[in-house]
Design brief:
Layout (H helix, E strand, L loop, with lengths): L2 H5 L9 E2 H9 L1 H8 L8 H15 L3 E2 L3 E11 L4 E12 L18 E9 L8 H17 L5 E6 L4 E6 L2 H18 L19 H4 L1 H5 L4 H16 L1
Parallel strand pairs: 1-4, 5-6
Antiparallel strand pairs: 2-3, 3-4, 4-5, 6-7
Helix pairs in contact: 2-3, 2-5, 2-6, 5-6
Length: about 240
């Protein structure tokens, strides 16, 4: 177990944070606040496509081969990190060394097995590392649940139909830990995320709720509405 997880030991069931919240936070702090604090959610073609993809992956049956075991829709949680979620797919590879302590044991299976988490994404790789952070968070949960160190995982992107192997190295683990700290600070009300207009806003399903253009002009939603009514009153004169 890493030094960071030792510091985070002891969260309760009610304090567990969805793994998906980390990806939302890294993509946009305002998006995270709208979804996880204000409970706002709106579908668009991107979210619908993503939901359908995950339902398809989770609905597939687990597969067993001699050297590989596939588990779909595996429930995850970590009381050390305070995380809860679900893995799209976890591949378990049988280790050649049957006496190895580098893997984990599986019920009804002989030998030692090394988990390899795979997260499915409907689009293409992003500039931000939010997908990698989400995969790392899943890995941290698996490591705690199975008492094993997992060095690698993968992201599967639907648009190029390509699997990208990701190293779950110390740098990515630190980045994930720092983002989780930031998330808990925001959840505790230590800061209030503000909208920030960006090119990626066009693909966000909460664009019309967030009104990121207002933040660009430094006007609040209240000021925006007041300006509309002021204009309407002027037109009636």
């Amino acid at each position: 177990m890493t030094e960071e997880s030792q510091e985070n030991r002891g969260y309760t069931e009610d304090e567990l944070i969805p793994i998906s919240a980390l990806q939302h936070l890294m993509f946009c702090e305002r998006q995270w606040a709208l979804i996880h604090i204000e409970g706002v959610w709106t579908e668009n073609r991107f979210t619908v496509a993503g939901r359908i993809l995950h339902e398809k992956v989770h609905g597939g049956e687990g597969e067993s081969r001699r050297e590989v075991r596939l588990a779909r829709g595996l429930s995850l949680r970590s009381f050390s990190w305070g995380l809860i979620g679900k893995a799209d797919l976890v591949e378990f590879y049988r280790l050649q060394d049957t006496s190895s302590g580098d893997g984990t044991m599986l019920p009804g299976r002989k030998g030692w097995w090394l988990p390899f988490p795979v997260e499915y994404k409907v689009g293409k790789p992003k500039i931000e590392r939010c997908d990698e952070v989400q995969l790392c968070a899943q890995t941290l949960c698996l490591e705690e649940m199975l008492s094993v160190y997992i060095p690698h995982g993968a992201l599967y992107y639907g648009r190029p139909h390509k699997r990208v192997e990701i190293s779950i190295d110390d740098g990515l683990r630190r980045e994930t830990a720092m983002l989780l700290t930031r998330l808990r600070e925001l959840a505790a009300g230590k800061d209030r995320p503000k909208g920030r207009f960006d090119r990626k806003c066009d693909s966000c399903s909460l664009n019309e709720t967030c009104l990121p253009h207002l933040s660009k002009s430094h006007r609040s939603a209240q000021e925006y509405v007041a300006a509309i009514f002021a204009g309407a009153e002027e037109g009636l004169r």
